[in-house]
Amino acid sequence: MDKFESIRAFTQVVNAGGFAAAAREMELSRSQVNKLVIALENELGVQLLHRSTRVVTPTESGLAFHERCVEILASLEEAERSITQLQAEPRGRLRVNAPMTFGTMHLAPALADFLVQYPDLQVQLTLNDRFVDPIEEGFDVTVRIAKPQEVASLIVHPLTPAPRVLCAAPSYLEANGTPTYPDELRHHSCLHYGQLAVESQWTLIGAEGEQTISVTGVLCSNNGEVLRDAAVRGLGITILPTFVVEPELQQGTLQRVLPSYHPPELSISVIYPVNRHLSTKVRLLVHFLQEHFGDRSN
After folding, report:
1. Across the strands, what pairs with 191?
2. Helix (H) or strand (E) holding 233
3. CA 261/CA 258 separation, integer angstroms
4. Which phi and psi angles does 66 have, rounded to 5°?
5. pTM above 0.70, yes or no
6. DSSP collapsed to 3 states, 269-291
7. How many other C-beta atoms can be found within 10 angstroms of the C-beta atom of residue 8?
8. 2 Cβ contact partners less than 8 Å away, ≥ 6 residues apart
9. pLDDT tens-place string over residues 82-123
10. Is 63 helix (H, G, I), strand (E, B) or coil?
11. In 3-state terms, what secondary structure has residue 29?
């Protein structure tokens, strides 16, 4: 017995309300459809349909089985469609979201290379520094920089760690002194990431373990480039990912502060809704980003 063909026949009979209509839909004879359903009932050892001269209705067991069959056939159809799409050139639009600084400095050039490889795709890149719900806002792929986490409705693929450092301009340190212990940060201008507040909490990890210090400063922002530029101008000490400040550290316009201490590490991840996992264009972009960023150490 071809079980899948029997399942299709049974499902079609229930959907169409009879054998004749199901036979027309399947382009089979009525007797062939009837034999497929009988073979399925014999295989399961249960009656699936109430048969009469005018109407065919599912039994209680048949109704429950029909619901599962619909799910199975839908999953099979989706899998077949996915395999077929793999053989075709990907096309269509991808809505991508990412943080502003990482997006302008690193993601945008990578996406340009991606589009050279797949010229029939179009990318709509939205950059902002607020928390985005990709399901609610309809993004296919979101790049997020945060502590590693799992979300039931999202698939998360880590790309690379995002270590952060404390840094300040030499001119600020010459004028205000260089802190040697985390607690001394309370007496410095600390440029922190986030919303305006009287004070912010910085967590640092060192040989003594984890310490949390309340800090204040003349500027806060939810954008890393703003904080970096302010630090370069000598406005205070800041904590930023190395991918934001590495050129300034190499040039000497910023220098590390408290090098024996570091903030909790963040991770750069690409995330997308569970219902996008069979999308060829999403899989291609995720694989490309993994290849592009996956071997980076910062």
Report:
1. 238
2. none
3. 6
4. -60, -40
5. no
6. EEEEEHHHCCCHHHHHHHHHHHH
7. 20
8. 36
9. 666 555 567 788 999 999 989 999 999 999 999 999 988 999
10. helix
11. coil
